[in-house]
Each structure stands twice: as C-alpha cells, then as structure tokens.
Amino acid sequence: MAAPDRQPCGFLYGFLFEYDTPRIVLIRSRKVGLMNRLVQLAILAYVIGWVFVWEKGYQEMDSVVSSVTTKVKGVAVTNTSELGLRIWDVADYVIPPQEENSVFIMTNLIITLNQTQGNCAEHPDETTICQSDKNCTKGYIGTHSNGVQTGRCVPYPKDTTIKTCEVFAWCPVENDEKVPKPAFLKDAENFTLLVKNNIWYPKFNFTKRNILPSTSKAQLKNCKYNAKTDPACPIFRLRDMVEAAGQDFQEMAVEGGVMGLQINWDCDLDKPASRCVPKYTFRRIDNKDSAHTVAPGYNFRFAKYYKSPDDVDSRTLIKAYGIRFDIMVFGKAGKFDIIPTMINIGSGLALFGVATVLCDIIVLYFMKKRYYYREKKYKYVEDYELEANASYGSQSDSRDFHGDR
User: Fold this and answer.
1) Whole-number mean pLDDT of the chain?
2) Would you say the pTM of this structure is higher than 0.85?
3) Distance CA 374, CA 378 (A)
4) d(CA 347, CA 55)
5) What is the per-residue pLDDT for 358?
6) Cα dihedral 265, 269, 270, 273 sign
7) Which residues contact 374 (CB under 8 A, 6 or more apart)?
C-alpha cells in the first residue's frame, strides 16, 4: 500500500534534485554519419540559398510611399443624327478631371437632350404600364422611378399603343434599354495616359520618379510604352493596356470596366540607384464572367444644366460608360544592415541543432542496436558528496575496528 504513495514523491524528488547534462558519444556508423551530414548540408543550403540569397536576409527592408498624377490626351470625332458632327476632347470624356490614383475615361454614352421639369409619361416596364388611372397612385415613387406619379394613365409618346403612369420628372425621361454598340467613342483606343509616379523609402531617405533622369523632353513627348522596346516610357495607349490584360478594348468599351495599372518598385539599394526602375503590369479588376452577366461593366450618370432666355431650367442627361484605370503602386527596398545579418546567422546556426536531434531520435529509437546506444548515451551518476561521506564512514569504522583489536 505504501508503494503508490512513494511514486509521486519519487517523481518530485527526481524533478527537484536531478540534473541532466549532454554527453558526447562518438558513433562510428556510416548511415548515421551520412544522414547527419546531409541534414546539415540541407540546413546550410536553406540558410545561404533561401535566407541570404533569395530573401536577402542581410538587408533591412522598407515599404514604398507613393504619389500618382495622371494626364490623358486624345481627340475623337462622332457624327450622329442626334448630335450631328461633334468633336470630343479631354474635357468631355475624362470625368472628373482629377481623381486620387485613378482616372475614368468615357467610351460610350446614352444621352437625353433638353430635359425640363414637368409632367410626362414614365418609361414603360412591368411596374409602370397601366390601363386606366386606377392603376396609378398619386405621389407614389418606385425604386426605379424617374419621378413622382401624378395619378394619371397617359399614352407613351414613342409607342401610342402603350399607356404608362404619368410622372412629374425631368422630361422626356431617359430610355437606357439599348446600349450603343459599337461604343460611341470607339476611337478612345488610341488615347494616351501619362502616369507620373514619385516614390519615397523613408528609412533610407531614397526618392525617385518613374520619369527617369535619362529621359529628355523630346523622348517623353514621342515615346509610348512597350514592354520589350520601351519599358521605361510612362505614356500608355489605352488599347495596349487592355490587351496586355488579355481583354478586347472594343468589347470592354461598350459597357465599361475597371482596369488595374500596377507599378512595382522592388529595389536593391546596395546596387546603383540607376538600377531601381519601375515595372508595369496590367490586369482587369472587374473580371468578366460569362456565367454572371447581371449589371456588367462600369457606368454612372451626370448632367449639364442650362437656363434658357425665358428663365426655364433645362439639362442634358448623360449615362456614361467607360473604363476606370486604377494605378496601384507597391514595392519594397532593402539595404545591408548588420543587425538582420547577425540575427539570421544566429538563427541559421541554431538550426544545426536539428541535425543532432534527428540523428538522436533515429539512433535511440529506430536502429537495431538502439538499446546498446542508449547505454552509451546515458550514464547515471550519484551525488559525489553522498558517496564521499559513505566512503569516509566506512574508513572510520575500519580504524575503530582495528583499534579495538
């Protein structure tokens, strides 16, 4: 009955009063020796190849701080029965004139001319078609209504066989069921976008811009970006950017979309500053999915207001479709610093202990002679003071015994 009580006490005694120290045992085994060297070689390859060469573990890193400004150039000409012969310049199709890290270029539109406030027939759909005044509710405003219902059911001007509820609104109301195809401003594919990008790495007080010092004013005026022939030019043709993202410009121009212009500044500041140059990539952000065609593209409405000589307010309503170019700047810079270098060297040296642990596990638990190796690996030593006292006591007893004789 006393044995179970002694076991916890023995465990506690061993925990408090026993000390483990490593013992070096030289094992002459080809398998274990070769495995140990292979593991050490793998760790060395990881530290040198991945940590220092690939990840540049000897450098201190910093993230980029950036500012972007844009400028669009290009002119398009249209000739329609509704608008006649008309020229479109930057002030017409860039809306608004400036945005933060982005620019919208109108490529298609639905225009409703000379709207004035008054009563007119609502655009026909399943919620506005009526047979009599009983089907219309005075003061009702639907989610997609163009105005407030007056309570009257009136013929629709463009198709007198149909009646719709009359509304107080900007009249005539917009009809946006048919989007012009091809795009109204199909010549926008030849417009150009100048991107001016300034970057700063605060830790290293390093600044640079994407218009390189070697670029002259004449070169900047005549260049166009090309990934192979002119990768440093900051002027991009719209069609080239869309096609670089694997899209068709004329198809995208019909209903609009969102493009991403990515500028990557990955710089090794241990090398000359001239080698720190931007890399441009392009992708469509609003990925087109043939299986999901609800509310495609990118569009919004705006109006231009006028006042006639007889003091009547009027406006031209434009539903604009176009491509928004989002300029995204990212990158990191590195420069040699002794602190990360020493930290990574220390971490690498510590990893060499993994080889010893792995070999110990195999030798002590998986090899045929594991019990023999355990005997050589572990040695149990009693307390020297206890052994000495026991020895001195026996000698005293011996002397007393001989003295009695």
Assistant:
1) 87
2) no
3) 6
4) 14
5) 85
6) positive
7) 364
Is pLDDT above 90 for 77? yes
Question: Residue 395 is inside which H or E element, if any?
Answer: helix 384-404
Q: Is 319 helix (H, G, I), strand (E, B) or coil?
A: strand
Contact 320, 302 (CB under 8 A): yes
Residue 170 to residue 49: CA distance in whole angstroms: 69
Strands 313-330 and 257-264: parallel
Q: Residue 322: exposed, middle, or buried by beta-carbon count in 10 A (0-12, 13-18, 19+)?
A: buried
313-335: average pLDDT: 95
Q: Would you state the structure tokens that stand for residue 88, as one six-digit string?
A: 């479109």
Residue 165 pLDDT > 90: yes
Average pLDDT over residues 287-314: 85
Per DSSP bridges, beta strands 102-121 and 313-330 are: antiparallel
* Closest to 107 measured CA to CA, from 198, 181, 188, 206: 188
For residue 99 the two structure tokens come to 């945005």
Q: CA–CA separation, 206 vs 269, rounded Å?
A: 9
What are the residues facing 69 on neighbouring strands?
196
Exposure string over 240-250, b if 16+ CB within 10 A, otherwise e: bbbebbebebe
Backbone angle region of 256, left / alpha / beta, with phi > 0 → left and psi within -120 to 50 → alpha: left
